[in-house]
Amino acid sequence: MNFKTFLQEHIVILDGGMGTLLQARGLKPGEAPERWNLSHPEEITAIHQAYFDSGSNVVSTNTFGANLLHFDEEELEAIIKAAVANARQASVQSVSAASRFVALDIGPTGRLLKPMGDLDFEEAVAVFTRTVQLGVKYDVDLILIETMNDCYETKAALLAAKEHSDLPVLVSNAYSENGKLMTGASPAAMVAMLEGMGADAIGVNCSFGPDKLAPIVREYLRYASVPVLLKPNAGLPHSENGQTVYDILPERFAGITASLVVEGVRIAGGCCGTTPDYIRALRDQITVEKPLWQPKHDTIISSYTKAVCFTDDPVLIGERINPTGKKRLKEALRSHELDYILNEGLKQQNAGAQVLDVNVGLPEIDEPEMLTRVVCELQAIIDLPLQIDTSDPVAMEKALRIYNGKPLINSVNGKRESMEAIFPLMKKYGGVAVALTLDENGIPDTVEGRVAIAKKIIETAASYGIDQKDLIFDTLAMAVSADQNAAKLTLDSLRVIRRELGIHTSLGVSNISFGLPQRDIVNASFFALALENGLSAAIMNPFSAEMMKTYHAFRVLKGLDENCSDYIAFADTVQNHVTLGDKAVSAAAEDTVTLSSAIIKGLKDQAARLCTELLKTDDPLEIVNRDIIPALDMVGKDYEQGRVYLPGLLMSAEAAQAAFEEIKSRIADGGGKDKCAFVIATVKGDIHDIGKNIVKLLLENYGFAVSDLGKDVSPEQIVDETVRLHAPLVGLSALMTTTVPAMEETIKQLRQRAPWAKVVVGGAVMTEEYAQSIGADQYAKDAMDTVRYAEQVNDSNSMQES
Q: What does pTM read for this prediction?
């Protein structure tokens, strides 16, 4: 039986942790676990066999960090070949009567993808591709992508797996305390993207014990139609006598996890701190014989952080990034003036748009290049899902490939060539398509004709494996100035598709009034009629006061606005309107161009230009203290309070850095850093430096003199640098349990040779209790936490010196 068939018919039990077991068998601090496949094959095989014997259906190869960023081609192939052989040998030797499979284990690269980091998306795809190719070559049964804490890197890994194998692919993400990925993605957003791209199972691993992961798992179960996976830690770690131990014992771990299997989890195992005893207990407590499966019918799109679900509550799609009839936008596209385009997106977001339409189609520009660039730049500063709007299939594919999330696709229609172009792209990259009710014969002039085209599109989509929940029908609003029955035909068709076929709908509302004066009057009335007839989403101008009045009034009258709070907030802004139509922009949508606002919005080019202008009249340090630092503080506070996620924090830091670059030339000491030295490193054996790099960027923006030693840094190197600089602060990062002993050893040596230094630690495996147990002065839960602590230490030192 192959794994995909087995998955459909059984509850699947995975294996548990590898790192702590290797440490118990002699893995040295800082030593790469993957190399043990070659140097200690008998130990790896014994661990795999113990899991099989305990009831695991699947063991994962010891290849978590096996990729070309960490090993050269020759060694990588040798490691993966040996890793698969070790797992296969364990399967042969196992006494278990259960079905047994070998999964190629793929972990994160340890680097952050652009624009937040320095790793290009296609480079990440290529790195994962080689690991996948070698796993296929040496005959694994399935692929497990796990512990991913960034939506974009997850997409790169899944894309590599789907493009270079036909094996089942399981994808699991590691969530933070706030219930989101490190870069901000919600569980619903991850379900939308991963299920859309064709993952065979999706879920959650690492981070916490099963009790704390339960709410996240339940959100997966709420939205996912594919099997849901749970692979929690054995609780929270702490150090005892130099050993890492966890606070949830096997029986309790198994009980909580098994109860979630009853709720619908279909694949379960363990991560950090779990052993064969945990898996044996889990196997014994799972009483569900057949998987519980309920298909979901939610129509969802997503950005890299949030999901937008189409319901009876209408979705507003901002139409302003479209050159049709917009002279200024055309000029910006021709001159590659991206700041203007980005500001249009920001203003629409502030005005209430929930999705942004992105159309850059001009005959004289390279549309594929411009569309991908605009999509990337918008996603760097705005967390709304995007509607990718182009009739060029090349531009569409390029944009879908680099899109971070599950986009809205505008559009497909009933023409054969249109469906043949769009549906394969949807199947590969995921997405929800706006389907136009027209075909080779044009736009039908009857309701029956438009509904017939809708049914044809649904049937054709199904032949590509695309569910009707991923279609939204546009029944085409035509100008009433040319046909007085146009509105009625559109609304009647919309009502049938929404009410009788049960599929969501969308309209370009303003098309209805083309050729008429005072168009907003007609648009707003038509919008109200369309909403009452089942309109799910409107492509509209969010700056139109009349349209927004209709939207908010409808939500109140339909009981969709709890306590009328959104309406009341909107009514307050109406007081600031002096005209109707496109000029009626609310105060929330107005664009105040200052250096601080550019930094807050993450507009790098604009921040650099504004800083250059200010430098003509203002003192450089005054600009730093008046404009740059307060802006960073504001974003930092929003980040700490959950109003801004990591991408927004980093883009603001990048914008501040762009301003600092302009200031550097005006300050003799090369940047105006006036705070203490801070030595930072990822500890020996750990090659993951995402967290470290984020901390470095923020510390530099706050004026600290950062000495970044990189990753996989020995205790001696860290101590030597601390002594050389007499640095009062040292930051240590670790992602993996196996490298925490190296962190503890580094702290021990710092206490001996640099007792003045305060040590702050962080990383995925860290907790406050764990940090205290290994002798750290401070545990930082995130980058801003590190900055706040560093400022306390710096201020204390400054007071002592004065």
A: 0.88
